């Protein structure tokens, strides 16, 4: 009889890292709501939240308390099991995508090397796409289970939008994978550690990915599933209390994770520009890993600001414009980018010169 031996230190490390990532994602998503209103106020020459705490810094806590204390309403005509399952699935898929993201280098703790990544799998990008594709079920289940025609119509819009733009997003990444030769997110970051960020080699791929990320997160100008002027409130119209909060939080968590993935794939991830990582670890030790995390967060915060800037600057598309852009604009561009990248990679492989 063979007894299985468990590395309890590894299990404890991963449990702590998972807890930190979940709490950090929720806190960042919570304060994205505050940042969104502050950015909107700045663009519209207003003050924004300023009552709860200094500069309104406690406003997200007040909003969260309000959602917790609101009455829980489940329509009599709804499918109660699916009605509860919808927001839970949306939140679960939003949080699961963070499992393969490298947040920094590594820590040296009690003689052990602890990488700042929950799971370094060699198909990290495929994992992200697989989990993201499950997010559409949270939208569809919530819209259908509500037994409301406006909610269902919004859910159908959301599902069609996500499926359409996932194609162009996937095609844009195929060109990137031709250059990197790997699906591991940590390996992609390490390849950019010398300052050769992928944005310089795949600018068109990044633009396509960024536009598709806006659509995947239901952000303006692609917020058709939540078009208040057309569909009352969207696919979560019948939701209240923390079920509504889960849907709203899932959107902000998705925006945060999208910016992290963009920073990882195109902007070097946790790489600090003009700094040698090995030399930094020799001087700073574990503080070097924390500096890398701060650098990644700086890139992510700038990306989130751009998301918010676009929301309060660009008007919403019509639905036919949305679908035309996805199928007739972005997919052909992504295919052209993939072919050009393949030709350039082939010429480089064969040592041909223009």
TrEMBL record:
One of its GO terms (biological process) is aerobic respiration. Keywords: Cell membrane, Membrane, NAD, Oxidoreductase, Quinone, Translocase, Transmembrane, Transmembrane helix, Ubiquinone. PANTHER family: NADH DEHYDROGENASE SUBUNIT 1, NADH-UBIQUINONE OXIDOREDUCTASE CHAIN 1. It comes from Pinibacter aurantiacus. It is found in: Cell membrane; Membrane. It comes from the Bacteria. One of its GO terms (cellular component) is plasma membrane. NDH-1 shuttles electrons from NADH, via FMN and iron-sulfur (Fe-S) centers, to quinones in the respiratory chain. The immediate electron acceptor for the enzyme in this species is believed to be ubiquinone. Couples the redox reaction to proton translocation (for every two electrons transferred, four hydrogen ions are translocated across the cytoplasmic membrane), and thus conserves the redox energy in a proton gradient. This subunit may bind ubiquinone. It is a multi-pass membrane protein. One of its GO terms (molecular function) is oxidoreductase activity, acting on NAD(P)H, quinone or similar compound as acceptor. NDH-1 is composed of 14 different subunits. Subunits NuoA, H, J, K, L, M, N constitute the membrane sector of the complex. The keyword Isomerase does not apply. It is an enzyme of class 7 (translocase). InterPro entries: NADH_UbQ_OxRdtase_su1/FPO (IPR001694), NADH_UbQ_OxRdtase_su1_CS (IPR018086). This is NADH-quinone oxidoreductase subunit H. The chain crosses the membrane at residues 6-31, 81-104, 124-146, 167-185, 197-215, 244-267, 287-310, 330-349.
């Amino acid at each position: 009889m063979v007894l299985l031996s468990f590395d309890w230190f590894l299990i404890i490390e991963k449990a702590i890292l998972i807890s930190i990532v979940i709490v950090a994602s929720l806190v960042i998503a919570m304060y994205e709501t505050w940042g969104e209103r502050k950015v909107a106020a700045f663009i519209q020459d207003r003050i924004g939240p300023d009552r709860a705490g200094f500069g309104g810094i406690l406003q997200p806590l007040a909003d969260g308390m309000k959602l917790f204390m609101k009455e829980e309403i489940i329509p009599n005509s709804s499918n109660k099991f699916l009605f509860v399952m919808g927001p839970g699935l949306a939140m679960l898929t939003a949080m699961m995508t963070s499992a393969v993201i490298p947040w920094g280098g590594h820590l040296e703790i009690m003689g052990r090397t602890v990488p700042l990544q929950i799971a370094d799998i060699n198909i990290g990008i495929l994992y992200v796409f697989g989990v993201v594709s499950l997010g559409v079920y949270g939208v569809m289940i919530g819209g259908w289970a509500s037994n409301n025609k406006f909610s269902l119509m919004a859910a159908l819009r959301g599902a069609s939008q996500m499926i359409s733009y996932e194609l162009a997003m996937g095609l844009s990444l195929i060109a990137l994978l031709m250059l990197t030769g790997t699906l591991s997110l940590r390996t992609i970051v390490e390849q950019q550690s010398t300052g050769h960020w992928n944005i310089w080699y795949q600018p068109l791929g990044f633009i396509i990915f960024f536009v598709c990320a806006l659509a995947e997160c239901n952000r303006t100008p692609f917020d058709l599933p939540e078009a208040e002027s057309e569909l009352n409130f969207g696919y979560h119209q019948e939701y209240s209390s923390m079920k509504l909060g889960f849907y709203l939080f899932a959107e902000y968590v998705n925006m945060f994770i999208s910016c992290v993935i963009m920073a990882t794939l195109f902007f070097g991830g946790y790489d600090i520009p003009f700094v040698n990582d090995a030399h930094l670890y020799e001087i700073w030790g574990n503080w070097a890993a924390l500096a890398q995390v701060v650098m990644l967060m700086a890139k992510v915060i700038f990306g989130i600001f751009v998301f918010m800037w676009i929301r309060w600057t660009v008007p919403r598309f019509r639905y036919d414009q949305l679908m035309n852009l996805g199928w007739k604009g972005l997919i052909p561009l992504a295919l052209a980018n993939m072919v050009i990248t393949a030709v350039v990679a082939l010429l480089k492989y064969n040592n041909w010169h223009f």
